[in-house]
Design a protein that fits this description.
alpha/beta, three-stranded parallel β-sheet, 7 helices
């Protein structure tokens, strides 16, 4: 175990913070600890931290509805609004939920599962995601995503996204 890990774990013990059994979760906590101890971080060409302006993010999520033209429109609207960045969600419905999981929200549509909804929204191909990120880059707005499965992480990494947003449910 590295000196930093030992110091991190020792500090957590002193603060009576319970560690999760998963090494992956402990790695996430270690990463968060490193960010907390940093004075500033950089996403794209924007610094975030004390003494820097507020970093604003437009949450696009899956509001593109699987349509690349809508994704471009969301980027345009985010850019026009003056935010620093836009964030999407990247996932495959089959890896996010089961085919029979009921929706946990009420949108007035009956007899529709989470899978039914999410599978309508995960239609962008890897090449289309590349176009989305290239479009944002050309518009000079930072673009990143919350990946919900390992394949999405790999795809986003291949596009050299400037950051990954970890879903709160994954922490």
């Amino acid at each position: 175990m590295s000196e930093l890990n030992e110091s991190f774990l020792e500090n957590l013990k002193k603060q009576k913070i319970i560690l999760f059994g998963s090494n992956q979760m402990n790695s996430v906590l270690l990463g968060l600890w490193k960010v907390i101890k940093m004075k500033k971080i950089c996403i794209g060409k924007k610094f975030i931290g004390e003494g820097y302006p507020c970093f604003t993010i437009a949450e696009a999520g899956a509001n593109h509805e699987g349509d690349i033209k809508k994704a471009f429109q969301l980027i345009d609207k985010a850019k026009d609004s003056g935010v620093d960045a836009i964030k999407f969600q990247t996932y495959t419905a089959a890896k996010l939920t089961t085919k029979t999981a009921p929706k946990y929200w009420d949108d007035g549509i009956k007899n529709e599962s989470q899978f039914d909804v999410f599978s309508k929204l995960d239609k962008l191909s890897d090449n289309e995601w590349k176009e989305v990120f290239d479009y944002a880059k050309n518009k000079k707005i930072i673009c990143f995503s919350t990946p919900f499965d390992e394949e999405s992480v790999d795809m986003l990494d291949s596009l050299n996204v400037p950051a990954f947003k970890i879903a709160s449910a994954d922490i």
